[in-house]
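Quick question, first post here. What does this chain look like in 3D?
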Amino acid sequence: MAPGHIPAFLFATLIVSFCYGIAVTLFIRAVGTILRKRRSTGKVNLPFVLPSVLIFILATVNVIGIWINIYAAFVVNAADTEAYLDRIRTPAKTIIQTGQVGAIILADALMVYRTFVVWSYSIYVIVVPCLTFVATLTSGVSFVKIQHQTNVETSVFTKSVTQWTVAFLLCSFATTVYSTGLIACKLLKSQMNLRQHGLATSGGLSNRIMRIVVESAAIYSLNHFLYAVLYEVKNQVESTPSFLEASLASITCSLIIVRSESTRSQPLSTTIGSGPMKASPEPLAFGKYSANQDGKVFALRSMDVTTDGLRTEDEGV
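> Answer (accepted):
Ran it through. Tokens below.
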């Protein structure tokens, strides 16, 4: 047992509690967004909303398990806290793992779905992420099974456990990176094509970069990579990205919902949240626009295809 296990565990608990607070705030805002969208359009994209709600529930389960683990380690097992924390499985760790693994698998599935939608429902685009997702699911089941079959005193860094855990993380990382790359590529292409046609997207360069980072779930993917590296080198700091997985997945989903709705009433947006862009009901000739006193475009032609096959119908959040 490394002497830094307790400080690393406490630090991870502090960080994940803070991030979960952000997740709760964004989830409440996302719920309000969904309700407003339903009242105004009568549509809700259930394939996107339902997994987002489930991911938040799993993030809650994950954080509750962490708090139970704190109580068990420092109150119930106060005489030997480090030995308790080093056990490969406990009831509290089972709760933590349920929330963590469940959120990762759901978030990966949602990433594949968003890639499918952003790329105009192309089956060929999602062949690779579907294969990596199946590998993620398989390796996830395997490493959970091994952890519950080994001796309770076994370290989490035992070779067999480490191999399956890292395999699970890298397969999930491959899924998210591939999907993230495709989504970011589509967003960049749509922005460039719109600007080439003289239709400026709102906000500056930094604003557009932040949109791509949020909507492609780049932060969630980066945390995956950090978790896998720290686990492979057997560093106790791995508990921080490990605990953050579920909360970051919930934050990412809520941000996408809020971001998608925040631009719904804007005249032109490259945002592709749970569905493609929405067109104004007023049909205009391509390249023409109507403008208010500020000169802002508020109506574009309603057509099936705009730039590089990007549809202008909206399925709702």
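Residues 5-264 form a domain with the Rhopdopsin 7-helix transmembrane proteins fold (CATH 1.20.1070).
The chain is about 65% helix and 0% strand.
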